[in-house]
Specification:
With 405 residues, the protein is mainly beta. Among the domains are: 136 residues, no CATH class; 141 residues, Methylamine Dehydrogenase, Chain H. 10% of the residues lie in helices and 37% in strands. It has a 4-stranded antiparallel sheet, with no helix packed on it. Strands 4-5-6-7 form a 4-stranded antiparallel sheet, with no helix packed on it. It has a 4-stranded antiparallel sheet with strand order 8-9-10-11, with no helix packed on it. Strand 13 and strand 14 form a beta hairpin. The chain is globular, with a radius of gyration of 38 Å.
Amino acid sequence: MSGIQEPPTGPATPPDGWPERDVAAEPPWDTKLDGNRRRPTTAEQAVPWLIGLVLALAGMLIVALALIFSSTDGLLPAFGTPSPEPTLALTPTPRPTPSPEPSPDISLEPTPEPVASSAFAPLEIIFMQRTSTSGPVHLFSHDFAGQETPEPLARDDRGVDQYSWSPDGAWGIALVEGNPLGLNPGNSAVDLGDGFDGITFAADSVTAYAVRATLSGSNDRAELLSVNMATGAVQVLAIWTYPHPTTFQQGAVQEAQFADDGGFNRVYVLQDGRVVVWILGAPEIYTYDPATGVTGTTNRAPLLWSPDGQLRIEVTEAGSSSTLTVRGLANEARGAAGVSGLVSHVRWSSLNNQIVFTISTSAGGGVSQELYLWDLETGSLAVRLTQDMRSMGGEFRGVEEHWKP
């Protein structure tokens, strides 16, 4: 080590200017004259050097430890440093730092990720299910990680056509032959009117919006209605008239997929509070702003994004197969999964890491529909949740749908 010399192993060389000493010419040691004191051996002369070396090394070690534990740049990371975020799905593309707006050219403060409600289990899903191959459709809630059997929410021999559940998970609306029934678990269903074709909840979990389309001469008349779940009051907000659309029937699997995605008349609530009404065959897609009462049109149906607004699912079809692609704000592909069948009713979990959806396939001259779960963090393949061939329209309970234009 620099600055420390090894102790001498032979006769010492005197410094310059000192008289040389002839040890061989000196008389032997006489204990009577000189006492018991004797000349130190070479090993004894080395002891002070060794002690100094040990003390020097100990001092250097103490200084090094002090530097390590006084700085977060040392050998140990600072407490609470997050681990790298996992790559989504099957494509090993690193996950970039998210921006809360869909434009990649705008840099804003990130939006905190929502926290799952403690009132509902992470895999508590509301879905529709037939009692038999040709039986009526009922509405159920099921914690797929805990419960053995689903809990019925709405049973009717006429069957449930469609439903919507409030973002806070407290109550919902089921459409039975167009009649909206208010559902509050543990209480009797409440009749909210008639003739509804589509239904959805606003972010406040109290207001619901519905669309009702009726034939008016050679035209159709579409009404946008609001429903107050606390009072049961129904109000007409806007009316549009358009030429009666001409529709055609597709194959059974395509028809089942179309119905599971909302059917002929659909209503959405955007993140900015505006309401969008989509009607098959209508010349326009209509909008309504509850804050101002102003109506308008848009050129496309809204897209569903994850609750944090950072990811969306793109579904593409090739024959009887589908591909689900996870895309980010810049439309970049973040992962993909291929499935056999046609995909419908994709819905996000509250933590942005899972989706539930329906797969429709042809089976025995009819249509088989099952619920599937895809975990985006682990990158595992889609897992089938139901085994009865009659389940569809699933969504996580207590999650607000994040629609953007």
